Amino acid sequence: MGVSDPIADMLTRVRNANRMRFKSVDVLVSKTNLSIVKVLKKEGFIGGYDVRKDPAGSHNVLRIYLKYTDSKEKIITDIQRISKPSKRVYVKSKKIPKVLNGYGIAILSTSRGIMTDKEARAIDAGGEILCSVW
Length: 134
Prior knowledge:
The chain is of the alpha+beta class. The protein has helices at residues 6-19, 31-42, 117-122; strands spanning 24-28, 46-53, 60-66, 79-81, 90-91, 105-110, 113-116, 127-133.
């Protein structure tokens, strides 16, 4: 059965696996999901990722390795979907919100690719706010 919102599905799987302190989680691979995971890796929210062939079927799977502190505390406190298929949220570069006064990040889809809110402000690009992570 198909997923109506693959980004929300990925974020929910990561959120649930993080709460249960799993080492890794498998999600469906797509260009958007892969770009979001690259941003999360670059910002230090996850330990890594790789694309694998699903042993049960012919689909590729994106395995995300979650990251925790030495004392087993979660790096990702929460991750939320902002723009949804039913209600898209677009912002101009001057109106990009800060997540927890800069302690978290917002991931945007701009005309120059998927990037963080700080990068979008630096290149003066607005776009669709996909999610926020802190």
